[in-house]
Structures are given as structure tokens and as C-alpha cells.
Amino acid sequence: MAKARLRIIFPLLASALSLAGCQSELDLVPISEVEAKGFQRIDFEWSSHDNIEAFDYFYYSDDFFSKPASTADMTFAHASYAWAIANFPCDKFDKENYANKSRNARTLATSLGFKDFECNHSFTVKPQVDSIGLTLARKELTIDGNACTVILLGIRGDSYEAEWASNFTLSDEGAAYGFATAANEAINFVSRYVTKHQITGAVKFWVSGYSRAAATTNLFAGFLDEAIRSNSPMFEGLTYGKEDIYAHCFEPPAGASSEVEGLHGEDFNNIKCYINPDDLVPLVAPKEFGFERYGVQNYFPSASRTLKYPTYEAKMLKLLNDFFKRGHKNYKPYAIPSFTPLVGAGEDDVAAFSKDERKVNWKVEYQMTDFISNLADVGIGSRWTYASEVQEGLARTIGMVFEKAEGGTSPFVDTLKAMIGDLLNLDLIRPLIDDIVIEELRPYFGDDLMPFLVRAFKKTLPNIETYEIRSIASGLSELLTAIAHSTAYEPSLTASLISLSNLNAITYTHFPELNYFWVKSMNPLVLKDPNPTTFHLTYQILEGFGAEDIDVINEHGEIVMKILDGNPIKLNDTYSYGIRTKFDERGYPQAYYNLYFPSEGSYQVKMRGEAGEAASAVLSYFDSSTSKRVRIKGLSFNYDADVDTKIEILPLEL
Fold first, then answer.
1. pLDDT tens, 437-490?
2. C-alpha distances in Å from residue 240, one per residue of 112, 215, 323
3. Which of 379, 603, 360, 588 is closest to 479 using CA atoms?
């Protein structure tokens, strides 16, 4: 979930940046052409990583509000992302002085012509467990000859310290409690603002947020849309409809209840979600617990979903690196860290992990999806179990940690790094491995992990007493035991997470500037040849068991995936495939093959197994709207000694 400065990233040097074209110049749209279309350049400031004040620009026009909110518009999305990160707490003057944390938001709202800027009390004091920072401003416009007021709502989406705990408070029914509480506070803040400034008549709402603020934005707009659908609008004296609520959600966790009818239909298509497929944060709260998001789900390009990804990534990275080159000392170009599945428990009680040879070109998206699904289904079991046994201790732990931490720090990430360092260097890891592998020992995982937690918290919070650390860590025991239980069914998940390089790769995907520049690279007023809004690219997956040999041949006759004698053979750096362990109803392990197919192209899968042996496979695809896999068809067959079993994979038409 969203985090306070969850950015243990950027250790990579220029030599790592090997994508073709990344260093070439981009063809920018001249400002004269932009202005001729009625847009103005707006410069803005926000607190970037490591508390550095950063600068960039976007293009704005009041005509944004002349189009229905359901209209797709990447120039508007870019402006909305700028507003979202301008609402990060300003650390320019004094990071401990909370009274002026909304400075960047105030400055930007004024630059856009909005007046009567206000922030709520929670934006002026140290964040608490259930607080939410909010800003508001307004602007009178005449659109198509009709007067209206645009209400600009901003939500604090980073550096919110103990407020992070609220992200994990789900409750046992309805929308996620922590996000719903924040959304309702935003509704109440708007209501008080409207009354104070005597706003009446036609209004339009512009709201956006990143991470926790994106989930709050999603529920704020979703609750307003639901009220409109039931003919009971939220605000008396105001005239507005669904198309007057412009909501942009960047890297949003899921907080809406999947029981809401038509979450992704026309009643909510004014709500736009923008998601990095490799980002862990949008995977929670888990879909397995019944959580989704309102509105249209737009996914950025990823290597998981399109063969054209290197070209798209090169443009985005060029914009990103130009930004850092301009604003940061000791600049070095950055590349997106790679993720490597690992296995192994070590020898002689010393941790020693090696690359998981069962998986070829495995992506963060696949590994994190498996991790969250296993944790929800196997480790915790149900939303009710989480609400009754996990969330209270977890929220208490987070609150206590941030109470002891310095403002603006990320103690959980720092603690995790310190703990991983100990795990990789101490012989104490053997009991933890036993706790994971031996079912009878799993309840002891939390107790055996305690020495690592105590040592790690002492490193990151040196002024805290040992008894306080034990009190903090005890709140994590149920969650840690659930993780141990869930990862036992896929050993690679455990080993892969005990890796600083993989932790970098996982956290990088939620880096706000990374995803900001994905959006900017799609803005047709920034680049003459912008990245296409290939938001709904997806992937197909063929999974089954019983095959000893598999060849996957693309439409050009090339073998692009290969499994020989049950072992994956790497042929290229593009396609993801491999062997995973699943357990049947009797608890016996079965080796399942997993073949992933990006959206484009046709493929023929040739399979061979023991003659006469019965086998099966399932072809499914990732549904971008629901973030769930959808079954396309199931296949049952017997292997023939003389003829390959063939399965055709055709491009999806969604």
C-alpha cells in the first residue's frame, strides 16, 4: 500500500541503462503549437524522493471542463497527476513544520486561477492513524454560455506517516474502512466549504490523488456517482451529474466493494484509474477479499503485456532522466531494476539463494500477483479473518512505529532492509526455513522472527526501547504467520522477497515520478510521437500439468518458449514461462507449467507427454476492468506417441 517515502531506489548507474534509443532526443511539441490550441504552460513544484523539491510543467486549459468527464484525455490526466503530487507535503522549509505542508498545492491552485484555497486541520498537524490531509479551492467559469463553479479537491498522497495504518483497516464488509473513512471526510470537507463560501447552482468537481489519495479519490467519486444513480445527490443546492465529476486515480489500491453493481460500467466511467501493472500497491486490498475499484482501469505498458514495451519504455525513461538530470546533484541515469525469482535455503545454516531456474523472464507482476493471492487465500483465508485477527495489531504496530520515527522517514522500509541484511548473514535463518517448510512449526514463525525484528528496529529507530520493540513486533505476529503459511506453497515467493535487489525492483514500480512520466509520455501536447494509450493491453496464460516437452512457435515460425524434459530452457529475454508447484485436493504437489502470451501475435503450442496419459490445460486472460483472470476455455486430452498435441493461441479481441 501507499507508504511514507517508500523509495529505496535509484542505485543504478548509467551502464545499466541499455535500452536502445533511451539517450536519443525526443521530438517535443513546440510551445507555440500548444498555445495556439488554447493551452498554457503551468510550472509546478513538489517534494520528490529524498525530500528534494522538484520542478516540472504541464499544460492546462479551462476547456477541460467543457467535455464530459467520461472523455479520455491524456493532457487532462497529466494535469491531474501534477495536482496529485503537488499535494504531497512540502518539505522545502522545515519537514517538522506541518503548518506549511500544503504550500505547493496552494501555489499550484493559485497558478491555475483558483481562489479561496483551504486545507483541513489534518494537513497542518502531524498525521495520525485515521487522519487524511485535504485541500480545496474554487474557480468560476462560463462553459457553453452557462456559469458554473469548479471545485478543486486535493488529497495528501505521500509522507503521511502514521496515517499509513489506515490503509490496512478493511473491516469485514462494504468498502475498505480506512479509505471509506477518508472519502467521507473529503465529502464532509467539501460540504463545509460549499456552505462557507455560499456556492450554489451548477458545479463541477476536479479531484485526483496518488496511492492512498488515489484510493480516497476513487471512493469519493464512486460514492458521489452512486448517490446520483439513486437520485439522491450528496450536496444540497448544487446542480451536477456524473459527467461533472472529473476523478483521476494514480496507482490506486483497491477499496470499493465488488458487491456494488456495475462498478466498471457507464455509471462510473467518469472515474479514471491509471496503474502500473508491475506495482504491488494496486493489488491490495486483495480482490480475493472482494475489493475492486470504481471506474475505468487504465494500465500502463509493461513487458508482461506487449512486445512493443522496450520502445514505449525508452520514451518514458528519456523524459524521466531529463527530469533528474535537470534537478538533482550527482545525477546518474536510471533504469528500471530487474526482478529475479530466487530459490534455496542455504547450506550449513547459512542463507544462500540462487536464481530459480524453473522460471524464465518472470515479471514482477506475476510474482506479486501470486504472493498477494496466496497470502489472501492460503495465509489469511478470508476478509473476516483479516478484520478480526490481523488488522488491529497491524494498525497498532504502524502507529507506534511512526510515533517513534522522525517526520517524513520510512521506518518500515528501512527496518525491512536491515532485517533482510541480517537474514542473509546470520545462521539464525534455519529455524525460519523450518517454520515455513514444516507445517506443524508455522505458528512459531512470528516468535522465531522476533530477534530479527528487534535487531532491525534498533538499527532504524535507535531511541526505542527493546520492550517497546517487542510490543510493536507482537502486533505483526498474525500477519507474519500468515505470510509463512502462504509462501510455503510457493517456495520461490519467500526466497525472492528476501533480496534487497528484488525489494528495489518491487518498490520502484510504485515510485510516483516513474508513473508520472508514463502519463506525460502519453500526452500528445508534450511529444509529437507520444506513447500510445495502450491501456487495455492484457495477457493470456496457458497453464496445466502432464507435459514433459513444450515448444511455443510464433506466427513467424520461431520457437519462443521451450520446456524440455520438464525443465524450462531460456531462448530470449521477452517471453515469460516456467514451472510452478501447486497442490491438489489431497495435498500432493503437482508441477504446473505456466506460459504467458502478450496481447499481440498468434502462437502454436506443441506439447508432448507420456503416450496415453490424460492431461488438461486451462487458457485464461487477465481482465483489465476487474483485475481478475477470466477463463477462456478448458482443454482435456490424451498424449499420442506419434503426434504432438497442438493448441492455438490467437490474439484477444476485447
1. 677 777 777 777 777 777 777 777 777 777 777 777 777 777 877 877 777 667
2. 22, 22, 39
3. 379
Separation of alpha carbons 618 and 622, rounded Å: 13
Helix (H, G, I), strand (E, B) or coil at 501: helix
Locate the domains of the chain by residue range.
Answer: 14-59+72-335+511-521, 342-507, 539-649
DSSP 277: T
The four Cα atoms 468, 474, 475, 481 give a dihedral, to 10 degrees, of 150
Integer-rounded Cα radius of gyration of the chain: 25
CATH 3.40.50 applies to domain 14-59+72-335+511-521:
yes
- 8 Å CB contact between 122 and 128: yes
| Cβ atoms of 105 and 135 closer than 8 Å | yes
Looking at residue 23, its amino acid is Q
Which regions of the chain are under pLDDT 70? 1-24, 49-51, 93-95, 327-337, 344-352, 404-413, 416, 420, 422-430, 433, 436-437, 488-489, 491, 582-589, 654
d(CA 533, CA 88): 26
All cell numbers assigned to 156: 495528501
**Encoded amino acid at 34, one letter:** V
What is the maximal distance between C-alpha atoms in the chain?
81
Give CA–CA dist 69/74, Å, rounded. Answer: 12
Indicate the DSSP class of residue 621.
Answer: E
Per-residue pLDDT of 86-137, as tens digits, reads 999 987 766 677 888 999 999 999 999 999 999 999 999 988 888 999 999 9
| Interstrand relation of 296-299 and 628-638 (parallel, antiparallel or unpaired) | unpaired
